[in-house]
Each structure stands twice: as structure tokens, then as C-alpha cells.
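Retry 2 of 3 after timeout on previous attempt. Resubmitting C-alpha cells to design endpoint.
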């Protein structure tokens, strides 16, 4: 049986004072360990947030990593540095990285491999643009994003990874995929991976992301192939994030 996972992507938000209040409130509210809770603050706050988490029920993740191990890569942060400051998870291939910063499937696959190579768990984001969906190309786009990782790292790599299906048209727009739309793509993701290894495909946690809120989390997370959520805007409000966490935890085994 797969675990439920709720991960908060703070994006480029926060300050030391805001983070302290948010982390304390989240820590106070996460009282169950049946569901994995992860928060992903901006790089500069990682170490301070890690100290606040005190090794408790909330784990630390980063929002990105460099594909290279070290060297002349000004402005970048390596997977080993992220591990060094307490991260356990790293988001790779978020749609904002893909669309704003031009990260393609091959680069994202290299980031996935770099992160996993340091013992961190990649949270691989996949998802289609609105135009792709309207043109009936959702599966083609998601398949290409998955296949790039399988080609580079092999299917076995998905035994130590999380996938987040995030339709780009639903991120930060207030327009959520319906539970049936999410379920259809989550099932497709498993099918695609099952061509390589059915056991790994059945065991990998696939999160949904895109305008998840307290009010819609329960119905999304209840779908058979949806194992929780990657939460952007709503992860910045402790009460909302905790309500989403509790919606997942209610369904946890
Ligand atoms: C995200 O940033 O990954 C995300 C899903 O954002 P939001 O929840 O705000 O749509």
C-alpha cells in the first residue's frame, strides 16, 4: 500500500520572520506520521528551516538542484550541498523551471540522477501545457518527460523517487484538474512505467499538484492513483496546508 505524501513548495516566498511563524504552526499541526509531510523553502532559508524542524515529523526539501556536482557554475547549488544542509527531497523539473528557465527533459533527467546519486529523493514534476491538453497531446508530453528519466537512470530509479503530476494550466491559476482528469493522467503514468516494471509502477507515489486547496484536496486524494499533493500557494498558509495534510492523512493506511 502506498503512503500518502503532502509536500509544500514555497516557491520564491518567505522571510526569516514569516518562515519561523509558518514552520512552528505546521510543526504543531502535523501530529500523525502515517502521512509524509515535506516543506520546500527557498535555498537561502534551508538550513535555518532545517534547524527549526528539529528532526520531527516534517521533512525538508529543496525546489531545484544543479545537475553538476561542483565547479564553475555560478549561482547554482549542488545535490551534495542540499544534503549537507539537511534536505531529504528535491523537486526537479517544476514547470516554472521548465517554462521560465528553459529546462528541457534531458536536463531535468540529469538533475534527477544527480539528486538521487547523493541519496536524496527526487520529486519529478511532469505535466502538460493547456495547448497540449487542448491538442490531445497530454499523454505524449508526459510520456516524453518520464521516458527521458528512464533512459538515463533506468526504471529502478523510480523505486526511490516521487512523481508529481502538475498540469501547467492548473498551477497557481485557481483552475484545478477535476479528480477524474487527475486520475486519468496518474493511471497513464503508472501504465507507462509498467511497460518497464509493473511492480515499481505500482509502488511509486504519484502526487497531484495544481491549485490544491483545503476544499478540493479530499476528493483529489481519494482517487485510486493519487497519493497526495504538491502544494504551492496553499502551503504558505499554515491552516490551509494543515487542512490539506489532514485530508490526505484521513485516507492514509
Ligand atoms: C506548485 O507550485 O507546484 C503548485 C502546484 O502551485 P499551486 O498549488 O499554487 O497551484
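Retry 2 succeeded. Sequence:
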Amino acid at each position: 500500500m502506498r503512503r500518502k505524501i503532502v509536500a509544500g513548495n514555497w516557491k520564491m516566498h518567505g522571510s526569516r520572520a514569516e518562515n519561523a511563524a509558518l514552520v512552528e504552526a505546521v510543526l504543531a499541526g502535523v501530529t500523525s506520521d502515517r502521512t509524509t509531510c515535506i516543506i520546500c523553502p527557498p535555498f537561502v532559508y534551508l538550513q535555518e528551516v532545517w534547524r527549526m524542524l528539529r528532526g520531527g515529523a516534517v521533512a525538508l526539501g529543496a525546489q531545484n538542484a544543479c545537475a553538476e556536482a561542483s565547479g564553475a557554475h555560478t549561482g547554482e547549488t549542488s545535490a551534495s550541498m542540499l544534503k549537507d544542509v539537511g534536505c531529504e527531497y528535491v523537486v526537479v523539473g517544476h514547470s516554472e523551471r521548465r517554462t521560465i528557465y528553459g529546462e528541457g527533459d534531458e536536463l531535468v533527467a540529469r538533475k534527477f540522477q544527480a539528486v538521487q546519486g547523493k541519496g536524496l529523493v527526487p520529486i519529478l514534476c511532469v505535466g502538460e501545457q493547456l495547448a497540449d491538453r487542448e491538442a490531445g497531446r497530454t499523454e505524449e508530453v508526459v510520456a516524453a518527460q518520464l521516458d527521458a528519466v528512464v533512459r538515463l537512470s533506468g526504471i529502478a530509479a523510480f523505486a526511490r523517487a516521487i512523481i508529481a503530476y502538475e498540469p501547467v494550466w492548473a498551477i497557481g491559476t485557481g483552475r484545478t484538474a477535476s479528480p477524474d482528469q487527475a486520475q486519468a493522467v496518474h493511471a497513464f503514468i503508472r501504465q507507462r512505467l509498467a511497460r518497464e516494471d509493473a511492480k515499481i509502477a505500482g509502488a511509486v507515489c504519484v502526487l497531484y499538484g495544481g491549485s490544491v486547496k483545503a476544499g478540493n484536496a479530499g476528493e483529489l486524494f481519494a482517487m485510486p492513483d493519487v497519493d497526495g499533493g504538491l502544494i504551492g500557494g496553499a502551503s504558505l498558509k499554515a491552516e490551509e496546508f494543515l487542512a490539506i495534510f489532514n485530508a490526505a492523512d484521513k485516507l492514509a493506511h
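Attempt log closed. The chain has a mean pLDDT of 97.
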